[in-house]
Amino acid sequence: MQISEGITIDAPIDRTYAAFADLDRWPEILPDTLAVDITYFDGYNQEFSMTVERPGGDETVSGFRYCRPPFELELFQTTPPPVMKRMSGLWKFAELPAGGTEVVATRRFSLKTVEEGGPAVTEELFATTLRTILRTNLELFKKAVERE
Amino acid sequence: MITAPVSIDTSPAFNHSCIRKSTFPVGPERAYEALFDLTQWERLLPHILRIDISYDDGQYQEFLMTVKSETDGAPMTVRSVRSCIPGVIEFFQPEPPAFLLHHGGVWRFKALDKDATEVTITHVWNLHPERASQIFPADEHGSTEDKVARTLAGHSCITLQTWQDILGSES
After folding, report:
1. Please, which residues bridge with residue A76 across strands?
2. Do B11 and A71 touch (CB under 8 A)?
3. CATH for A2-146?
4. Chain B residues touching chain A at CB-CB below 8 Å
5. CB B168 within 8 A of CB B34
6. What is the pLDDT of residues A37-78, one digit of tens each?
7. What is the domain partition of chain A in residue ranges?
8. Would you call B94 and A66 a contact, using CB atoms and an 8 Å cutoff?
């Protein structure tokens, strides 16, 4: 299952990209992000873990990102959220002719079955929830970048 | 003006690189598959003692590879992370050899005809200056930087030759 959400941020592409790229800033931008630990970063490849607050309790995910400033951040999680088998994604950044930056966030995921510990909902229904989280996060980044 | 995303071999994050090419005597699908399919490496590659795959979703992979020592010492285990899309395999080592701060690279596959593929391997790296100069001291044979580059280029050539031989015996 793949979902996408987009937003326009009234800021230059470099500044917009930098906010998404700098994981150390995430806890100040996203209220549900409790902790971030970057265990490797060479300027292109990055290994990280992140703990987020969820209704069922705190969840820690871990994985890798490929950082391609200022156009693209690619993500995959070797330890996705507990209900998921897989989670990967992409943020794409594009300069708009009239100024500002368009950000499109895409996520690909598959859920565990109920027997494996997955949710008792279809992927389509789960995608609705995930899309809401994605949209909320994009709006929080927009606020953070535009008030800089 | 840059208008497209960089890849690992065009990223400004790395100060050093080397490129080596070879022609594999198989089509591009088989050449890519051979490099992609970690489950066959223990069987095909004699210097590999063990592959432990911790993650593989068909595109992204994380694994431990234990190889025989080049000097009859203890076997060495390296952790690798790869992103694989047909035609391109990017890789890096989150825990690189002691003489490097960072190490990664990319395999690229270009069809020449149905039974020939040009395979390019590019390594990129940043030196750990102190450790590199201890392990590869500058002398009349070259600078530390040159010796590291020759070592990694040598590994590239051996790897290309090994796969060329393996795939040649299949065809």
Report:
1. A64, A88
2. no
3. 3.30.530.20
4. 4-8, 11-14, 54-55, 57, 59-60, 62, 81, 83, 90, 92, 94-95, 101-102, 104, 126
5. no
6. 999 999 999 999 999 998 889 999 999 999 999 999 999 999
7. 2-146
8. no
Cβ-defined contact of A76 to B57 (cutoff 8 Å): yes
Q: CATH number of the domain at B89, please.
A: 3.30.530.20
Q: How far apart are CA A142 and CA A93, in angstroms?
A: 13
Q: Which residues from B are below 8 Å from A72, CB to CB?
A: 5
Of A39, A43, A86, the CB nearest to B13: A43
Domain annotation covers residue B11: no
Helix/strand/coil for A138: helix
Q: How much is the mean pLDDT over chain A?
A: 96
ipTM for this model: 0.94
Q: Within a domain: residue B6?
A: no
pLDDT bin (cut points 50, 70, 90) of residue B3 is low
- pLDDT tens-digit readout, B21-74: 999 999 999 999 999 999 999 999 988 999 999 999 999 999 999 998 877 778
Classify B167 as helix, strand or coil: helix
Nearest CA among A10, A18, A6 for reference residue A95:
A10
The helix-helix angle for B28-36 and B144-170 (nearest 10°) equals: 120
Are A71 and B4 inside 8 Å of each other by CB? yes
Q: What is the pLDDT of residues A6-45, one digit of tens each?
A: 999 999 999 999 999 999 999 999 999 999 999 999 999 9
Question: Would you say B148 and B125 are in contact if contact means Cβ atoms under 8 Å apart?
Answer: yes
Number of domains in chain B: 1
| B54 CB-contact burial (10 Å; exposed 0-12 / middle 13-18 / buried 19+) | exposed
Which residue range(s) make up the domain with B30? 16-170
A64 to B81: CB separation less than 8 angstroms, yes or no? yes
pTM attached to this predicted model: 0.94
